[in-house]
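Final report, section 2: Outcomes. Of the targets proposed, NAD(P)-binding protein is the one most frequently requested by collaborating groups, and we therefore present its record in full.
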Amino acid sequence: MSSLDASKLFSVHGLVAVVTGGGTGIGLMIARALEHNGAKVYILGRREDVLKTAAKQNAIHGNIVPVVADVTDKASLEVVVSRISEETGYINLLVNNAGTLGRRHNAINRPPPFGNLPGQFVHANGEDDLSTVDGIRDFLWKDEVSDWDNTFRTNVSGIWFPSIAFLSLLNKGNEKQNVVQKSQIVTIGSVGAFIRLLGTSFTYNPSKAAANHLAKMMATNFVQWGIRSNVIAPGIFPSEMSVGQGKLDENNKNHIPMAIPVEEIPLGKAGDEEDIAAAILFLAGKGGKYVNGNVVVTDGGRLGIGPAVY
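The predicted structure is given below as tokens.
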């Protein structure tokens, strides 16, 4: 018999989840939401001290487990998979959250009629004349191929290799049948995947577009084993990417205290923990069990005010 009780529709009780980049920002918000509602959550990242602080300060049931790992290193991923195989034998959910912004290009003005929008991060870098084509060319030519490689390595390869590493454990989650919903990969993308205006980086947006398409390909090709793949595409949320590294509070959280002009985000604010928690609890819980190959946008209306491909 079906239940319309919200506590059942969005329950993740008994779920076993892995969250990459789970020590700070959106990854930590997701880990907190899942663990608060009954899941066991392994948080992966490269900084052991950050992971341990996140687990200690945020696990209300003692079920956030810090694990040092590099999502772009196959040997590192194999060690994590082996550990979780021994401890639980399966997982129900993989959240691919680890990401990087890449080299910033935000000294460049936006084109008309968008150049006067607030929040465009325009500033003079003191080296290049960015009012001319030649100046723009010289500024952008400072990119190295490695800058682009590193961004795509984290934002695309860093989705693919964890997904493949945990594929068998996700399948075992289906065999375990500890929850009614099928196992799932949730990729944390970005509305940047759809935005044509330059925000901060020419490398970031196309890498997130690639991540979206990869997630959709996994939805199509892994469905034969009952393994789903969906995307959450956030707008601006407090994280080390939006606020800057080294600005964590005692609970590993970042903050965006100021209001954001409605010309930039129609709802006038950055997203908060409740916004991202609602999205992950919908997809991960029973209420989202019929969803596969979807992109859930949570951006305060940002995609509706400029050129985009959504």
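The longest helix spans residues 145-165.
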